[in-house]
Amino acid sequence: MSVTIKDVAKAAGVSVATVSRVLNNSNAVSEETAAAVNDVIKELGYSPNFLGRNLRKCETNNILVIIPSTEQTFYSEIIKGMQDAAQPDYDILLSTSYSHLGTEMRLLEMLFNRTVDAAVLMGTKLDAKTLNDLNRKYNIALCCERVENSQVFTVTIDNEAAAYDAVSAFLRRGNRRIGLVTTGGMTEALSSTDREVGYTRALNEFGIDKDEKYIFRCTYDYSDGFKALDYFMFLDNPPEAIFCISDLLAVGVIKQAIKKGIKIGTELEVCGFDNISLSEMFIPEITTVSQPGYEIGQKVIAGLIENIHNPVKRSDTVILEHKLIVRNSSR
């Protein structure tokens, strides 16, 4: 039979409460008593049931992070920031929803049954009403992707302004036909919508109307960049520059353009988004919009932990600074 806390208390000649205090590193126990209890624990091979104890306290010291996909390498810096902000008091449990609502709700069962203390949603499929209802009962936060009309603590960037800056840079260099490679349909996130709004605003300020034929809607898959480039090159007047809402799509566009003998940076300018490590390692190096991924991760966990320990929850949206990084894929 397994050794219980009562067995430890009896062998050490102390109360169960004293053993519990030793296990919790309480200062209420003398060093001599603590040493004696720990010796008995080792001798008997006692292993405390931390999960059961934490559930009784309604604390697990775990935070669930749900990402929509493992394909976005940009998430790695965010997760590193989360882990550093969580330590030493909390652990990050990472899972993937694959942008499927049913999977997301199943994963959130860990929050509902108190297996985790809180959850961060990156690219949620839940609507504002559902999120607001959940936020009243549990501790949740949104990361990277905002949700219109939600009153949930959120950390992101101004995606509209970021796209506006990227497209305006194309236009200031004399380009007038600007292609946009973005998501659409079931894969479309609010960040994509915001970036298209920024694209449109930049065109309008330069006296250019948005033309749907210069917009290619697809998924985030790298190979869709190939298809986008092929589509644009079939137009009577192909784009002089292409803005992609992710660096992986930009890589696909550039690779296909090079296959067709198009000179990147002179005959065709390309800009990506996220500043993943590949954008700098690729040849040519890719112009992109940089998001402060590590800081995003830190901020969202810090705010969530603050909400865990305070009766009045933060419900604000923190907007962090983006940066346009110009490299060889632009003139």
* Level-1 CATH class name of the largest domain: Alpha Beta
Low-confidence parts, pLDDT < 50 over ≥5 residues?
none
Helix content: 40-55%
Number of domains: 3
CATH architectural designation of the largest domain: 3-Layer(aba) Sandwich
Which value, in Å, is the CA radius of gyration?
26 Å
What is the topology?
Blueprint: H1 5-12, H2 16-23, H3 31-44, H4 50-56, E1 62-67, H5 75-86, E2 91-96, H6 101-112, E3 118-121, H7 128-137, E4 140-143, E5 154-157, H8 159-172, E6 178-183, H9 190-205, E7 215-218, H10 224-233, E8 241-244, H11 247-259, E9 269-274, H12 277-281, E10 287-290, H13 293-308, E11 317-320, E12 323-325
Parallel strand pairs: 1-2, 1-3, 3-4, 4-5, 5-11, 6-7, 6-8, 8-9, 9-10
Antiparallel strand pairs: 10-12
Helix pairs in contact: 1-2, 1-3, 5-13, 8-9, 10-11
Question: What does the model show?
Answer:
The chain is α/β, with parallel strands linked by helices. It folds into three domains: 5-48, lambda repressor-like DNA-binding domains (434 Repressor (Amino-terminal Domain)), CATH 1.10.260; 62-157 and 293-320, Rossmann fold (3-Layer(aba) Sandwich), CATH 3.40.50.2300; 159-292, Response regulator (Rossmann fold, 3-Layer(aba) Sandwich), CATH 3.40.50. It has helices spanning 5-12, 16-23, 31-44, 50-56, 75-86, 101-112, 128-137, 159-172, 190-205, 224-233, 247-259, 277-281, 293-308; strands spanning 62-67, 91-96, 118-121, 140-143, 154-157, 178-183, 215-218, 241-244, 269-274, 287-290, 317-320, 323-325. The strands form two sheets. The chain has a six-stranded parallel sheet with strand order 2-1-3-4-5-11, with helices on both faces. The mean pLDDT is 91.
